[in-house]
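Internal tracking record. Fields below are filled automatically when a chain is submitted to the structure queue. Please do not edit lines marked as system-generated. If the sequence contains nonstandard residues, flag them in the REMARKS field before resubmitting.
Queue: standard
Priority: normal
Entity type: single polypeptide chain
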Amino acid sequence: MRNQVTDFAAGSTAARTADQVRSALAGDLDRARRRSRALTDPVDDGDLTRQHSPLMSPLVWDLAHIGNQEELWLVRDVGGREPVRADIDHLYDAFKHARAVRPTLPLLDPTEARAYTRTVRDQVLDLLDTVSFDGRPLVEQGFAFGMIVQHEQQHDETMLATHQLRAGPAVLTAQPPPAAVGHVEGEALIPAGPFTMGTSTEPWALDNERPAHTVDVPAFWIDRVPVTNAQYQQFVDDDGYHDQRWWSTHGWAYRQRAGLTAPMHWHGDGSYSRFGRRSRIVPDEPVVHVCWYEAEAYANWAGRRLPTEAEWEKTARFDPTTGRSSRYPWGDDDPRPEHANLGQRHLAPAPVGAHPAGASPSGVHQLIGDVWEWTATWFDGYPGFTAFPYREYSEVFFGRDYRVLRGGSFGTDRAACRGTFRNWDYPIRRQIFSGFRTARDPLPGEAG
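SYSTEM-GENERATED OUTPUT FOLLOWS
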């Protein structure tokens, strides 16, 4: 084993000893597990096993699935150890059973699921004490452990979305997000030219973020902040949900079929529900729980459009002064609370203008955290894409079914969020923490 490996946890090129890497990984694994417990411990066994929406799995399925993936990849593959529970693999294979039918399966009960995840984690921490970070792409720079950290945090965000859909009294608490610092509005011009999209060096980057490649993007204007509740309310008040002009053919058909009249969880009286509490809509918060079709319709109504994925990433990573793509809008350092609203630290998007330290060099705010942002782009692989470590992570989703979302939400952990990170979902999905910002092409003479 080498004496030093790349400092993936901090995202820098500084070298760290293997023991320091192990310590950082143990900390990331622990942070993810503490969050999983915080999402499952406050509710009783009935809530854990109940399906709160056909769109979501029972919380107990997510919990045991987290442990099963950790066992498959770390205990069995990396560690070469005997299975802990090979008999349950088929129950927690996300490709074998749709979410709607998972409650009918003979799942581990809450006590068994907790015991199982503890046993798996004990073996993983034991393995972490001795594993070599050399010899296999799966373990180099701790990738497999980082993949599992990201996987658990992604399911934690899914469980957070399930909490938003559950009925009953509120069980989650958090401090409110910070207030806005000044007033931010308008749009920023992103100049034409090439930039480096994706990554070939980010140690924990998943296969769909790779490889780094040059994309030449024409000049465009983009909103400096996400579309707010107040702005979206104007679309609602202008009867935007009943004016077919603003909707695509597929979007209008879905709007009619689903009976959409406002973002999910809005009640039509100026209030909305969030994690079991009903309150007045906050005008300057980014709008959340809108599907792609709603975002598209709003953009059409506003005389604008949704940004492409390349436009979004160039806005988030490219510094026109240096010509360099950074990891985040503010640079290469990992997110801190002053940069972005991440990690379930708050249970709501922060008002626009609340994180000026996280702005991009072009003066665009809140690209990371708060709400996932819909883009105009279908999910597909980059030029030179190679599936790793398995096709089912990304490749099976490529095509014309899923739209790309970028930037993360208030429920996304920093381990699963960076300027290159790609999320995707069906354009009808609204239970996710999704919002958007708009863009437009320059008018003659505007691009300099």
